[in-house]
Design a protein that fits this description.
Helix content is 48%, strand content 10%. The chain has 577 residues and is α/β, with parallel strands linked by helices. The strands form 3 sheets. Strands 1-2-13-12-10-11 form a 6-stranded mixed β-sheet, with helices on both faces. The termini are far apart. Bound molecules: 6-O-phosphono-beta-D-fructofuranose. 6-O-phosphono-beta-D-fructofuranose (F6P) binds next to helix 8.
C-alpha cells in the first residue's frame, strides 16, 4: 500500500528510481506467499500440526514467547527471516553494538546497550571506551541512592526523605515511571515516587498536595535541560519549595538533575555534585538505563536497578548472538512487519495481564511510535510502504470490558501481545488464576473463533428456540484467525522487566532497519513545539489574532475573550465589593 503522497518533494539530486526493500526478492516472495496463504485459518494450521506450539515458541531464561497463534507457516517464517537478512539486520545490529553513528540525521552513536553492559567489556564511541564513564555514574548513583534510602542524607532540617518527585517528560518520565510502577513490591517502605510531566499545572499541584517540602527530593530529568514542560514544572517546583522553606541553600539538599546539559542545570541552581550526567549517545526513549533511572535506584534500591540492567543485558546478548530464526526480538519484529506491510494492519495492541504493568502501553507508545513513526528513509527519500504501527493497549482484564469487542468481531485486524506472569507479586485468593485464565481464554478465542456450527450447537444445547436462533446466530459467530503473541514468565521481577523492555527496544530497532528509517531521531515533535512558542506569544495580549488560518485564529480569539473577560469581571467584582 502506498502512503499518501504529499507536496513535499525529496531533493532533486536524489535518485528517485532507487531500489527499496519492496523491490527485494524476499519482499516479492512474501507478497506472493501472502496471496497464497491469506485465506488460511490458524484453526486449520493447529489441526494440521499438533506440534505447532513446539515449532513456534522461544524461551530465554524464564521468559517464554509463544508465537504459534500467528498467521504463519514455517515457510512464512523463513521468508520473513530472508527479508531480515536481505535488509541487513545483522549488519545494522553489528553497527549499533560497535558504536557507529547509526543515528544518521543527528550524527550520533546509539549505544544504550553500553548502559547495561554488565560484563563490562569495552564499548567504543568514536574510538573511546564509554564504560569508565558509565561505571563512574553508576557508582555515583549508588552512593547517593544508598545514602537517601538509609537516612544518611536528609533534607535541610534533618528530616528523612519520604517523597521523590521526578520532573521530566517523554523518555525522561515514561521510562523510570514504568519501572517504578511495575516494581512497587520492591520499593522501600515509607518512600514514595511521583512523576510530574504535564505542562498542565494540575499535575504538579496535585502532586505537591501529597508531599511536605522538608521530606521531598526533586529529580529534574532532562537530557537537553531545555524541554519546555520540564523547565516549567522545575521552575514552579523550585518556587513552591523556596516559598515554603526559604533560603537558597536548602535547594542543594532537595534538588538534583540528570542531564547532558551541565551548564543549564548549573544555571538553574543545581550544584555540580547533584548533577548526574548522561551522554549524547543515549536516546531519550532509551535512557531509563542511564542516570535517568535515578528515581528507580532511589525508590527500589541500586541492587534492584542493577538487576534490571542484568535482565536487559541478557536480552542484549540473546539479540546479538541468537540465530535470527530463534531470536525473540527479531521474530516479534518480523511478525509485526508481516501484519503491517502484507496484511495492512494499522495498529498493534499490547495487553499486560498485570496491573503493575499498567503503564507499559504508554511507555511502548513512545518507544515505538517516536522511533518508527517516520515517512522519510535514511537516504532522505519518501517511503512507499507503511512504517510504524499505532501502538495502544490497556491491562487485562479491563480491556476485555472496553475494546475487546472490536478485536473479536470488528472489521479491523489488530495483532496483539499478551503479557502475563505465572505467579502474582500480590497473591490474594483466586485472583491470579482468574486473571491468567482470562488471558489464555482471550488468545484462544481470538485464534480459534467460533464457527457457525459451534454457535448453533451451543444455542441448541442452551435450549434457545429456533426463531431466536435464526435471528441471533450470525451475531454469535466469531471469525477468529486474529493473531497474538503471548509472553509468559515466572514472576515480574526487575530482571524480567529489564529483559522485556530490552526485547521491545530491539524489536523496534529491527523494524526500523526493515523500513530503512532512522529510528533514533524525533524531528516530528519539533514543529508543534515551534508553533506553540508563537501561539503563546499571541495568547499573552488582548489584540485580535489574524496571523493563522481561520480555525486557529478563532480558537485563539475565543480563548482570549473568555480569559480576559473572566479576569476583568473578577477585578470589577473585587473593586465593587
Ligand atoms: O518528545 C521529544 C523528546 O525529545 C523525547 O525524545 C524525549 O524523551 C523527551 O522529548 C524529553 O527530552 P529531554 O529529556 O531532553 O527533556
Amino acid at each position: 500500500m502506498a502512503v499518501n503522497s504529499a507536496d513535499v518533494k525529496t531533493s532533486p539530486n536524489k535518485n528517485t528510481m532507487k531500489k527499496t526493500i519492496t523491490d527485494s526478492a524476499a519482499w516479492k516472495q512474501l507478497e506472493q506467499h501472502f496471496k497464497q496463504t491469506q485465506s488460511q485459518h490458524m484453526r486449520d494450521l493447529f489441526e494440521a500440526n499438533p506440534d505447532r506450539y513446539k515449532d513456534f515458541h522461544i524461551q530465554l531464561d524464564d521468559i517464554l514467547l509463544d508465537y504459534s497463534k500467528n498467521r504463519i507457516t514455517e515457510e512464512t517464517r523463513q521468508l520473513l527471516i530472508n527479508l531480515a537478512k536481505e535488509s541487513g539486520v545483522e549488519e545494522w545490529r553489528e553497527k549499533m553494538f560497535a558504536g557507529e553513528h547509526i543515528n544518521v540525521t543527528e550524527d550520533r552513536a546509539v549505544l544504550h546497550v553500553a548502559l547495561r553492559n554488565r560484563c563490562n567489556k569495552p564499548m567504543l564511541v568514536d574510538g573511546v571506551d564509554v564504560m569508565p564513564d558509565v561505571n563512574r555514574v553508576l557508582d555515583k548513583m549508588e552512593i547517593f541512592s544508598d545514602s537517601v534510602r538509609s537516612g544518611l542524607l536528609r533534607g535541610y532540617n534533618g528530616e528523612r526523605f519520604k517523597s521523590i518527585i521526578n520532573i521530566g517528560i517523554g523518555g525522561s518520565d515514561l521510562g523510570p515511571q514504568v519501572v517504578c510502577e511495575s516494581m512497587k513490591p520492591f520499593a522501600q517502605r515509607g518512600l514514595n515516587a511521583y512523576f510530574v510531566s504535564n505542562a498542565d499545572s494540575t499535575h504538579l499541584q496535585e502532586t505537591l498536595k501529597q508531599v511536605e517540602p522538608e521530606s521531598t527530593l526533586f529529580v529534574i530529568s532532562s537530557k537537553s535541560f531545555t524541554t519546555q514542560e520540564t523547565m516549567l514544572n522545575a521552575v514552579s517546583a523550585k518556587k513552591w519549595f523556596l516559598d515554603l522553606v526559604g533560603g537558597d541553600k536548602a535547594i542543594a539538599k532537595h534538588f538534583v538533575a540528570v542531564t547532558n546539559n551541565i551548564e543549564a542545570a548549573t544555571d538553574f541552581g543545581i550544584t555540580a555534585d547533584n548533577i548526574y550526567e548522561i551522554w549524547d549517545w543515549v536516546g531519550g526513549r532509551y535512557s531509563l538505563w542511564s542516570a535517568i533511572g535515578l528515581p528507580i535506584a532511589l525508590y527500589l534500591g541500586m541492587d534492584h536497578f542493577e538487576e534490571l540492567l542484568d535482565g536487559a543485558h541478557v536480552m542484549d546478548h540473546h539479540f546479538k548472538e541468537a540465530p535470527l530464526e530463534e531470536n525473540m526480538p527479531v521474530i516479534m519484529a518480523m511478525l509485526g512487519v508481516w501484519y503491517n506491510n502484507f496484511h495492512q494492519s494499522q495498529s498493534h495492541a499490547v495487553m499486560p495481564y498485570s496491573q503493575y504493568l499498567r503503564r507499559l502501553p504508554a511507555y511502548l507508545q513512545q518507544l515505538d511510535m517516536e522511533s518508527n513513526g517516520k515517512t522519510i528513509d535514511r537516504e532522505g527519500e519518501r517511503v512507499e510502504y507503511l512504517t510504524g504501527p499505532i501502538i495502544w493497549g490497556e491491562p487485562g482484564t479491563n480491556g476485555q470490558h472496553a475494546f475487546f469487542q472490536l478485536l473479536h468481531q470488528g472489521t479491523k485486524p489488530v495483532p496483539a501481545d499478551f503479557i502475563v506472569p505465572c505467579i502474582s507479586q500480590s497473591p490474594m485468593g483466586n485472583h491470579h488464576r482468574v486473571l491468567v485464565a482470562n488471558c489464555f481464554a482471550q488468545t484462544r478465542a481470538l485464534m480459534h473463533g467460533k464457527t457457525t456450527s459451534e454457535a448453533l450447537d451451543q444455542m441448541r444445547d442452551e435450549g434457545v428456540s429456533d426463531d431466536v436462533i435464526d435471528e441471533l446466530f450470525a451475531h454469535k459467530v466469531f471469525d477468529g484467525n486474529k493473531p497474538t503473541n503471548t509472553i509468559l514468565f515466572e514472576k515480574l521481577t526487575p530482571k524480567t522487566l529489564g529483559s522485556i523492555l530490552a526485547l521491545y527496544e530491539h524489536k523496534v530497532f529491527v523494524q526500523g532497519v526493515i523500513w530503512n528509517i532512522n529510528s533514533f531521531d524525533q524531528m516530528g515533535v519539533e514543529y508543534g513545539k515551534e508553533l506553540a512558542g508563537d501561539i503563546q506569544g499571541e495568547l499573552s495580549h488582548r489584540d485580535e489574532t489574524k496571523n493563522y488560518d481561520s480555525s486557529t485564529n478563532a480558537l485563539i480569539n475565543y480563548r482570549k475573550d473568555i480569559y480576559y473577560n473572566h479576569f476583568d469581571r473578577r477585578d470589577y467584582d473585587k473593586d465593587n465589593k
